[in-house]
Design goal:
heterohexamer; A mainly alpha (about 350); B mainly alpha (about 120); C alpha/beta (about 160); D alpha+beta (about 400); E alpha+beta (about 550); F alpha+beta (about 220); A: about 350 residues; mainly alpha; two-stranded antiparallel ribbon; about 65% helix; globular; B: about 120 residues; Methane Monooxygenase Hydroxylase, Chain G, domain 1; 2 domains; flat
């Protein structure tokens, strides 16, 4: 019973306090951050009672406006699929977060709570099984729209997303080989180890640098953001969602941003130590140069959760930077990049990892 | 590990996600003005009238990629259990999987030579 | 569907109207119907120096379904006018039209056989921006005035 | 959708789909319609439909007098209006057989080069934006904005300059101009570097542009390409060298040549030309001679305002020039004069019958040949290639459709 | 070489002129125009503007002198554009402009001002060296009912003074004060008062004398001009009708702007009387725009075509019922010869009507004077007479015939019937078809009322009282649905199935010329309306 | 003299492996971000620094507008407070768009200029802001230097300026002061601050030097 209540609280926390706000923040960052790096100001005029909040209020206006915008359902479309697709897009990204640990075990009032919604033994498989639901959402929405641009966008999306799905999967094999588990929590815990007398944490980024270089573009491609925004391809085919109006379009957009949050979370979890803070152990900091700070358990947990969030925010920021820096791929180049560069390299990564592990054994 | 409990949590997650997404879609369906006119009921194509339907056979190249995906994705699923138990399997397991991967790579090479990724 | 209040007490509806009007005025996704010279100033107005984004009106949506604001930027001639009309028709409510520049307002210097003498002959216009092309300040001024107009008009829901 | 058209294209019976890019499409930043037959991502057939911005340039010029017509030349290539002004009035002056004083020529040259920079920056910005690079777009826009704000202080307008008159300019360059231009030149070079960093050494960008939109040098010549488009095909032709006008003969500069005939080279050559324009501006401002900018004949250029307000002679000369039946009337005859505009050879063909208005005012639009060649360029490629191809030809609707 | 000519050399070419010809005239006639302000071929020489400087060379001695005062002499060599001459002219101009006010912005003469023209051609490339305060004189003086004098702008050429003295024969203006303070002033307290005052505005080379009717109405460069003939009286003065068809929004329907005389040696020389000059208002004011048909007391507006059809039906029915003798036609002496020819063809040759006239008893007569004015206020009475548009047999005036019932149908062109016939007489008419240019108060509505074009709206010709047939030219399209007499009569003939009525001007001319010797030559500029006020036309009006 | 120079580009391994080029680009944008963010932060902390963006925050900040600007028209009064315009119609004649509409009338006896406009309208909807009317005006009456960019309106009728609004363009009749050195650099945040200057009332600023008046 306690676990169920805890789960509900955790889920509410994740969804209400983490995913949606993070997506919201990312949308804000999308505009504000791009503005700052482009020497401009970005949305800052919208205000409530004189509070402008650096343009955050503008995002609120966007959301409200999308709610009260005309809900256009094209008579030439397949109505059921047309309305189902945005639902599916949102649903698919919301559920993915279930297996990502955002904190260590927390002993609270005698109960031990895992700061993770579901520590499934098949965490990886859960993710790879459910995340691609989003592909269906796009494919269905694009097809249902019955518009040539969206049809092109849809078929591009399918081609792109399934291709990079393979690389995402393959690039993480090395990581699984290193950690010997597909349980995400376990992976994070193992990243709390250290090398070289505790100087360097055993984070995925050090264990699998090539894996990171492969996973990062592949994961990025899964979020359909520039330079991988071919399904949208605004200046070519306007986008797979061009017949959607108001919030239905907003849901597609929001799912993209949540995907970015998830990508950030996955990068954090796999390669940057998850909720681990370097040299923070369950009883406090133990620095390799000999300094020690003991901290109460709750403080440690909070620090670690904060660490997770900070990393998340950083990757959100970084992904935006990349998104606003690069031009867009072409479809065939994208596919070639995936199958001819990333995929063989991922295979190579598996082989190299195997050799290294065998040698070290 | 209480698997039951974790799956309950997943179920709750699924339910909540469905609730949120569904609520958004349904509430959106109720709000907003509505109007129509003959032009609005046509698909948008840069302001000119669309000729022909989008719903017809897509180019075969897209399907070639999809077929490759099916092959490789399934193989990757095979790789996961192998990777988890890689340390236990040792060198023999490594060679086995190397052969397996070699076959895959040969397949990939074959498809490259067949021009799956060539678009013109 | 206009909001009717059978009680005659319009407090709630006007508050709601004001609220929705507020949201709509700060979130205008433009559909830039860019044809000619004014496009240069539209680029300037949306670029860093003048930054239309500050008014929540900088994210161009190139599909009329998602756009709120039809920015008709540049000369519309008779060959192009059906295209403009169709794009306007395909927009979702609520929609606002800005005639950007002299050519769209009145035909401008092109008082001849080829050019539509003001797009208000084709579609209703909410805001006229004179200038050939209008300076970015004028564009921003038009956006501010349009926001006031949206805020003060009854909102359809 | 009942009217399905199945067009068997090849042995595989690949169905093609007809897609319209434009008239109102983000790629077509001028208004143009591209009617594509696509099989998957490949373009099988391409048809370019123009005329969406026809606004009767020639007829309007014929209805306005020789000086008034300049406002219509502004709106030809609205990215670099001043070059158009200069070209038009050089043609009129050739018709009237007069020459602007040497300061006037230098001023025209410097302003033309500034406009060339703006034009290239805009073209590059648009091309970058359409490839998804919004940040380079904004950086380049920033650079253009600098020049515009400088020009605004001299000319009074940001885009439509209408700055030249027969026999000179509306105003002289102020004395602070060189100092201000110096700083902006630095910033322009800086922005150029940033664009290089962001794009030209980026594999994604190279892939998108290298080898795309190929057109052979022979085809380029037979289509009538000029300007950067032609020079990116390795052909050495520039009106500034072939038939020097203004003060280009006194200036030391390079004309970059590239030989790959593709979108990358067209993009790159514009960046290089910006650098060269900076050089010309720098030298031009350094060499700027003293003296009047306007032709001194009272029957050609307006008297100074102080004379108009203060003396009956000035007032009468002013009236004689401005009253409709006493304005400038070139002798009957015809003339063609070409200059190197940002996009290539911009020529004006004028016919005078000795009347108040041009009898005929035909412009050789620089981007017309490019647009004609566009179907050939994009037919080799994919849908996504339309974007860089179109961006690289820098089509300007006002000039194309006139 | 004949005895009575003197041969001189102008710019290297030799010409011969009668003795006594002044050099300015000689140069002008030889195609080497010499600028001048005060000289006018019709006026005495005063030689005060010093603008007509030329270089005269006789017997190896040369000097720069005014061309107007000197007359031709055997062996004289004249050079009109040597540097010395140009310098002298420049100096003259600079002098004339010393005290000239900066009035071009509100001077009506701007655009047709000789000062401006000569400054453009001969003026100083440097601007004025005069930096002192200019002499101020009185502006805006009213010196006659239509004249305003601006003394500051005056260059004291005294053309106006001489015009009144020598042409009109009344000394009404004079020059007062001395030196830089000299100015023109009216001798009488009430200002000038004669019938030719407007001409001084034309001959004034600058904007000193302006016309109050045209003052500030329109800038001269907006005006287009067409050469035509004044319809004011039988003199047939040649005029330029100046009009503005652009700027429609501010014209308020007013097209004709002013009338300027046009030089014709035989008829009016350079002049025109005031009543002709200010008569252009009738072109646009109070015009009949649409045809109307009256049936059983119901009056309705119809198109001209329908009205012509109705008229034809009624005429046919009337003739069938009452015969041709009861139907009278009243042609108009204001119509063109061509229109009258068509009328004659239709009614006299075609329908064989005996009762055709062009006069009506009691019509107003003008007062003739010795210069231009003629008592007959219609431009084409002679044309009517030439075409024999007179009743075939005398049987009393139209009024008495109507009263007697001999005439019960009337087709009338442009006569003020309500004023000339009593209401009873009009009531007695069974059929009244009226072709009219202006709106007239009808106490008995005509059965058919057709709008007619005025002279400015059609091509054609008028024959003056002394038999000179001169062409009039169309300046603009007829107002409303009006048609020319030629068109309407041709259409009517078509409806009446009468052949032989000319449809075009040329056909009418052919027919005409066989009818009277006066019509053998139609004089006048054949060219259509010119786009702008031509420089040539302006040159003549200033001479 | 100009010469043709070949600039062909060759690509090597750094381009082939994507990452270096991308990293350079990302580094550039990050640099922009960090630098701008630093100045934003300084400003948020009320520390005097240049702004973090080149943006003009329009209704709150305004640019210093140059005197040569061609923007909304006005008609000047002369030193005695009389209308300068004498309805000479040169502006109307010079206007390529026919957007000026003048009806002249005779002015009262006491005014030296005999003629004045009864109606003077400029249709901003037509106007192409070419400045030819200013150039044509012989009386220094019409100017386009009000600095008023606020011309947008929701009806075309409001875009017609009548004589009254031309004479009283509003409180912010402005033109920037004459150029003082490096003012243009207001745009370059790397070199100088964005100058946010409120407009000052300068009713009689003219770009033209008015010469001797010896009328």
């Amino acid at each position: 019973m306690f676990e169920t209540i805890a789960s509900i609280i955790k889920i509410c926390f994740i969804v209400v306090c983490l995913l949606l706000p993070m997506a919201f923040l990312l949308m804000w960052a999308e505009r504000k951050e791009s503005a700052i790096m482009q020497d401009r100001i970005g949305a800052n005029r919208a205000s409530v009672f004189g509070i402008r909040a650096w343009g955050l209020i503008s995002m609120m206006a966007d959301a409200i406006k999308m709610f009260v915008k005309e809900d256009f359902s094209p008579p030439f479309a397949n109505k059921r699929l047309f309305h189902f697709a945005p639902f599916l897009a949102m649903f698919a990204v919301l559920i993915t977060f279930a297996v990502i640990p955002f904190g260590p075990e927390w002993t609270l009032l005698g109960h031990t709570v895992k700061l993770q919604i579901a520590d499934l033994g098949v965490g990886f498989l859960y993710m790879f099984a459910l995340a691609p639901l989003g592909i269906y959402a796009i494919a269905l929405g694009a097809w249902a729209s019955n518009n040539k641009y969206s049809a092109l966008g849809g078929i591009r999306a399918v081609g792109q997303l399934i291709s990079y799905e393979v690389v995402v999967g393959l690039s993480l094999i090395g990581l699984v080989m290193v950690f010997g588990t597909v349980q995400l929590d376990s992976i994070v815990v193992q990243q709390g180890d250290y090398w070289f007398n505790g100087w360097i944490p055993k984070w995925g980024v050090f264990l699998q640098p090539l894996g990171l270089l492969l996973f990062f573009p592949a994961g990025f491609a899964e979020t359909k953001r520039v330079p991988f925004d071919l399904p949208e391809g605004e200046s070519e085919i306007i986008g797979f969602n061009l017949e959607y109006s108001g919030l239905k379009f907003g849901l597609f957009m929001m799912s993209e941003f949540i995907e970015m949050v998830i990508l950030g979370a996955l990068l954090t979890t796999f390669f940057f130590g998850g909720w681990q803070v370097p040299w923070l152990f369950s009883d406090g900091f133990h620095f390799p140069w000999g300094w020690d700070f003991s901290l109460p358990h709750t403080a440690v947990v909070l620090l670690q959760v904060m660490s997770f969030l900070t990393k998340l925010v950083f990757f959100g920021w970084f992904l935006q930077i990349v998104r606003w820096t690069l031009p867009r791929f072409r479809y065939d180049q994208l596919i070639r990049l995936c199958w001819l560069y990333l995929l063989p390299l991922a295979v190579l990564n598996v082989v190299i990892t195997g050799i290294v592990i065998l040698v070290l054994q | 590990m209480d698997f039951n409990h974790d799956f309950v949590a997943v179920a709750i997650m699924l339910g909540l996600a469905a609730l949120i997404s569904g609520a958004m879609v349904i509430i959106k369906g109720l709000l907003g003005p509505r109007s129509t006119n003959p032009s609005k009921e046509l698909p948008f194509e840069c302001g000119v009238e669309a000729v022909g339907s989008p719903r017809r056979g897509m180019h075969v190249k897209y399907y070639a990629v999809a077929i490759l995906f099916i092959i490789f994705d399934i193989e990757i699923i095979f790789l996961y259990p192998w990777a988890v138990h890689f340390r236990q399997l040792g060198l023999f397991g490594f060679w086995q999987m190397l052969i397996f991967l070699a076959v895959l790579v040969v397949g990939l090479f074959y498809s490259v030579r067949k021009g799956v990724f060539k678009w013109q | 569907m206009a909001v009717e209040n059978p009680l005659g007490d319009a407090v709630i509806t006007t508050k709601l109207d004001a609220f929705i009007g507020w949201a709509r005025k700060w979130s205008m996704f433009p559909y830039p119907f860019v044809t000619a010279c004014c496009g240069m100033e539209y680029m300037s107005a949306s670029a860093a120096r003048y930054d239309l984004d500050r008014f929540g009106a900088a994210w161009p949506r190139f599909t009329p379904r998602q756009a709120d604001l039809l920015l008709v930027v540049g000369t519309i001639n008779h060959k192009l006018s059906p295209v403009l009309k169709r794009v306007y028709d395909q927009m979702c409510d609520p929609r606002y039209v800005v005639a950007f520049g002299a050519c769209t307002v009145s035909g401008g210097p092109y008082d001849n056989y080829a050019v539509v003498q003001g797009i208000d002959n084709i579609i209703p216009v909410d805001m006229y921006i004179p200038g050939c092309p209008p300076r970015p300040e004028t564009v921003l001024d038009a956006v501010i005035k349009l926001q006031a107009k949206i805020q003060n008009s009854p909102q359809e829901m | 959708m009942s009217e399905e058209r199945y067009i068997p294209r090849n042995d595989l019976n690949i169905e093609t789909m007809q897609i319209n890019l434009g008239p109102s499409h983000p790629t077509t930043h001028g208004i143009i319609q591209m009617d594509l037959q696509v099989a998957g991502e490949d373009i099988i057939e391409a048809d370019v439909i123009i005329g969406y911005l026809h606004r009767g340039f020639e007829k309007m010029c014929e209805a306005h007098n020789w000086n008034q017509a300049v406002i219509y030349t502004d709106r030809l290539n609205y990215v670099s209006p001043l070059i158009n002004n200069v070209g038009y009035h050089l043609a009129v002056e050739k018709l009237m057989d007069i020459e602007v004083p040497s300061r006037g020529q230098y001023v025209r040259m410097v302003l033309s080069e500034i406009m060339r920079i703006c034009d290239h920056q805009t073209a590059l910005a648009a091309a970058a934006m359409e490839l998804g690079g919004f940040t380079p777009f904004l950086y380049l826009m920033k650079g253009r904005e600098l020049w515009w704000e400088l020009l605004e202080r001299v000319v009074g307008a940001r885009v439509t300059t209408s700055f030249t008159r027969i026999g000179g300019m509306v105003a002289d360059l102020p004395d602070w101009f060189a100092a201000a231009a110096e700083d902006i030149l630095l910033e322009t070079a800086n922005i150029n570097r940033e664009v290089h960093t962001l794009l030209t050494r980026n594999r994604i960008f190279i892939d998108r542009t290298r080898g795309v939109g190929y057109i052979s040098p022979e085809d380029a010549i037979s289509y009538g390409f000029t300007g950067p488009m032609l020079r990116s095909c390795g052909i050495e032709y520039d009106v500034r060298v072939a038939a020097p006008y203004l003060a280009y003969n006194d200036i030391d500069f390079e004309i970059p040549i590239l030989t790959n005939c593709d979108v990358y080279d067209r993009f790159y050559i514009r960046l290089l030309e910006i650098d060269q324009s900076c050089r010309i501006i720098k030298q031009g401002l350094a060499k700027l001679p003293q003296g009047p900018v306007n032709h001194l004949d009272k029957n050609i250029s307006l008297p100074p305002k102080s004379e108009v307000y203060g003396s009956i002679e000035g007032l009468m000369a002013h009236f004689k020039l401005l009253m409709n039946d006493n304005g400038v009337r070139p002798e009957a005859g015809e003339v063609y004069h070409a200059i190197e505009a940002a996009n290539g050879e911009l020529g004006y063909y004028l016919v005078s019958t000795g009347e108040l208005c041009p009898h005929k005012c035909r412009v050789r639009p620089t981007c017309m040949p490019f647009t004609q060649a566009l179907p050939q360029m994009i037919k080799q490629g994919m849908i996504a290639d339309v974007v860089p191809c179109f961006g690289s030809i820098n089509m300007i609707g006002g000039e194309l459709d006139r | 070489m004949e005895n009575n000519t003197i041969s001189i050399e102008i710019n290297g070419e030799s010409f011969s002129f009668p003795p006594g010809t002044n050099i300015l005239k000689a140069c002008n006639m030889s195609g080497f125009p010499v600028p001048h302000f005060c000289y006018h071929p019709c006026l005495s020489i005063s030689g005060n503007c010093r603008m007509c400087m030329v270089e005269l060379e006789l017997n190896g001695r040369s000097k720069v002198d005014v061309a107007c005062v000197n007359t031709v002499a055997e062996g004289l060599k004249v050079l009109t554009d040597t540097p010395a001459v140009l310098k002298a002219r420049r100096a003259s101009l600079e002098f004339l402009l010393l005290n000239h006010p900066l009035d071009c912005p509100f001077c009506d003469c701007a655009g047709e001002c000789k000062l401006q023209d000569y400054y453009e051609q001969y003026g100083n490339p440097e601007y004025s060296r005069f930096s002192e305060e200019k002499v101020h004189k009185q502006k805006r003086q009213s010196i006659g009912h239509n004249l305003k004098l601006d003394a500051e702008r005056c260059v004291l050429c005294t053309r106006c003074v001489r015009f009144f003295e020598e042409v009109v024969g009344k000394k009404e203006l004079g020059v007062g004060h001395r030196g830089a303070h000299s100015e023109i002033h009216a001798l009488a307290e009430t200002g000038v008062d004669n019938d030719y005052t407007g001409n001084v505005v034309d001959i004034c080379p600058v904007g000193a004398l302006t016309d109050t009717t045209f003052r500030f109405q329109r800038r001269t460069w907006y005006l287009q001009s067409v050469p035509t003939i004044c319809p004011g009286c039988a003199r047939g003065c040649n005029i330029e009708l100046q009009f503005d068809l652009e700027h429609e929004y501010k014209r308020a329907g007013k097209r004709a702007q002013r009338i300027k005389p046009r030089y014709n040696e035989q008829v009016n020389q350079w002049w025109i009387c005031d009543s002709g000059r200010y008569g252009f208002g009738a072109i646009d004011d109070n015009r009949l725009q649409q045809a109307s048909v009256s049936e059983e007391g119901q009056n309705r507006t119809v198109s001209s075509n329908e009205a012509v059809k109705a008229a034809a039906k009624l005429i046919r029915r009337f003739i069938d019922k009452k015969g041709t003798a009861a139907l009278a036609v009243l042609a108009s002496p204001d119509e063109t010869n061509e229109g009258l020819t068509a009328l004659r063809q239709l009614f006299r040759e075609g329908l064989q009507l005996p009762q055709i006239d062009y006069r009506l008893a009691g019509e107003p007569q003008g007062v003739a004077d010795q210069l231009l004015k003629h008592a007959d206020l219609h431009p084409n009475s002679r044309g009517c007479a030439n075409l024999q548009l007179e009743p075939k047999f005398e049987s009393g005036s139209l009024a008495t015939q109507i009263e007697s019932g001999a005439i019960s149908g009337l087709i009338c062109f442009r006569h003020d019937l309500p004023a000339l016939l009593t209401p009873q007489q009009l009531e007695q008419l069974e059929l009244l078809v009226v072709f009219e240019t202006h709106v007239v108060e009808w106490n008995r509505q005509p059965e058919v009322l057709l709008p007619l074009a005025v002279y400015a709206e059609q091509n054609g010709s008028f024959t003056s009282f002394d038999g000179i047939t001169q062409q009039i030219n169309r300046a603009f399209a007829p107002s409303g649905e009006a048609g020319t007499a030629l068109e309407l009569i041709h259409a009517l003939a078509g409806e009446l199935k009468i052949k032989g009525v000319p449809a075009t001007l040329e056909k009418a001319r052919v027919l005409m010329s066989s009818l009277s010797a006066d019509f053998a030559t139609v004089s006048g500029p054949v060219a259509g309306p010119s786009r702008q006020v031509s420089k040539e036309a302006r040159g003549i009006q200033h001479v | 003299m100009a010469q043709y120079v070949n600039h062909d580009q060759k690509f090597g391994a750094t381009e082939a492996i994507y990452y270096p080029g991308i990293a350079k680009g990302v580094a550039l944008t990050i640099r922009h971000f960090v630098v701008n963010m630093w100045f934003h932060l300084m400003k948020a902390l009320r520390i005097k620094a240049r702004p973090g963006a080149i943006t003009i925050q329009y209704p709150d900040q305004r640019r210093v507008l140059p005197a040569a600007l061609r923007i909304r028209h006005r008609i000047k009064l002369n030193e005695d407070g009389r209308l300068r315009c004498t309805a000479c119609m040169l502006c109307e004649t010079a206007c390529p768009d026919n957007c000026i509409y003048i009806v002249p009338m005779e002015s009262p006896e006491e005014v030296p200029e005999e003629k004045m406009p009864a109606i003077f309208e400029i249709d901003l909807a037509r106007c192409c802001f070419c400045g030819m009317c200013v150039e044509a005006c012989p009386m220094d009456a019409i100017h386009m230097d009000t600095g008023i960019a606020e011309m947008a309106s929701d009806s075309r009728e409001n875009l017609v300026l009548d004589l009254e609004s031309l004479l009283k363009p509003g409180p912010i009749v402005c033109t920037g002061p004459a150029f003082r050195g490096k003012e243009i650099l207001e745009l370059l945040p790397h070199l100088k601050d964005v100058r946010a200057m409120e407009h000052q009332t300068q009713p009689e600023g003219s770009i033209y030097r008015v010469g001797k008046t010896n009328r």
